[in-house]
Amino acid sequence: MNLIGDLLTKITQNKGRIDPFSLQFRLTVGIIGASVLSFGGVAIWTTWTTYQILIDSHKQNIIYLTDRLPRDVELYSEMIPVDIGLRRAINNVTSPNLLIWARAPDGSVLAQAETLKTERASQIVAAVDSLPWLPTKPQSSWINGSYLLLSSEPLAINGTRIGKLYIAQDITRDQARFLGLIRSLSLVNLLAILALAMAIASYIRRSLQPLREMSQMTQVISVDDLGQAQLQLDSAPSEVTDLAQTFNTMLSRLSDSWTQQREFVSNVSHELRTPLTIVHGYLQSMQRRSQNLTEAQQEALDIAAVETERIIRLLQDLLDLARADSGYLHLSWEPIDLAALLREVASMADPFSSHTIQVEIERLDAHGSGAESIHVKADRSRLRQVLINLIDNAVKYSEPHTPVTLRLHQFDEFVALQVSDRGCGIDLPHQTRIFERFYRVDEARSRSTGGSGLGLSIVKTLVEGMGGSITVRSKLGEGSVFTVTLPNPSVKL
Q1: What architecture is the 238-326 domain classified under in CATH?
Q2: Whole-angstrom distance, CA of residue 426 vs CA of residue 441
Q3: CATH homologous superfamily of domain 333-487?
Q4: Residue 483 in contact with residue 470, Cβ under 8 Å?
Q5: Consecutive sets of 10 residues in the chain, 493 residues long: mean pLDDT of each?
Q6: Hey, which residues does 25 pair with through a beta bridge?
Q7: What three-state secondary structure class fits 147?
Q8: What angle do CA 229, 234, 236 make, to 5 degrees?
């Protein structure tokens, strides 16, 4: 069982586990299964044929003796009495494993071979005589621990029936030798199958190695690598090489499409932002001189101004994302006092929200000392944009008058900024996707709050552009905590 288990482990592995749906597993099991059936079928047919040849040779010998004995007795009867001639003829053809005897119609023994004088032979004869029926043609039978070929035919001399001739040939030893040979052949066959299975598994593994390499190459291809990514396979079959070339062509087309898409978004956003900014300026000017407008006109003007401002913000977000994708996102690096920045953002957001914006600062360094001033090197305006977006997101998805907390932690190697709320929370399946572009947890609610699905994507892009990372921890009904981690905290300036 250990050998079979090791073999299955070597057949196909995927991160230490057998994958029953992999091509390697299916090919290996299929070929090994076909080989086992073929070997097994040939072995069974060979065994059966050999056994029949063995039995048939003994049967032919018995049939030959059955035909020969009456003729020998007839020859002896010309010179000696029939009973003496019968005994002599039987003794002439007898052997240690061949039991021959003849009985008269009344059941008395006419003649018997010398081999019948042993105790075991007598037991076999007694067991045969007790059988209710004996075949006229040789047939095999298991009697008293011996495997025998039995035959009984009428015995006629010179046309006169004088009794019945019984022949029992003991083939137990031949049967044992045959079974031993079968066991040896079975063991050899099993070892051959195992060796073949391991050879097949190894060959299939090597044959599929180019596909495995191709899969590993494609796993590390990112959007930024589409233009330069090329699959290079050494010593691969022509089919796999053709597949790699097709995949390279597809990567090139995807790169062109992605570049065209980014340029289109950037161009459209840039072209639309300027006229919309002008329109928004006119709307604001009209709002300031709206004394002669009716209430309905004033309401329509306010809606138009709000929607125009929302579209301008959306276009600005798209421009930022397009610049980041193209590698042209400009960052102005400078030392930033994070504690002061958090208080500044909180004071900016507090008048425009029904929520209380709280700021908590904690320093956890190797010395365990506290500090009110924590500095990092980043882009002040971009980091302010990140915090405002996170606060805006917390306010939108929280009940009024619940607090929104800004926490600042400094550790030995990084700084963590947390924005936490006590809102509705985010379900676990959505937590892995909320940083995707245009992804919305609740479409209806996003429309009502004016969200475009780009806010958190912008946050992630800006944070990663500054060398940091952002994570979320949330529970339904209890709220969410967004954590921004920035590297390399500086000492107090």
Answers
A1: Orthogonal Bundle (1.10)
A2: 8
A3: Histidine kinase-like ATPase, C-terminal domain (3.30.565.10)
A4: yes
A5: 43 54 81 84 85 86 86 84 85 83 85 77 80 79 81 85 86 84 85 86 82 78 71 75 82 78 69 79 79 80 83 77 72 88 87 81 54 79 90 86 89 88 86 82 54 80 90 90 82 42
A6: none
A7: strand
A8: 105
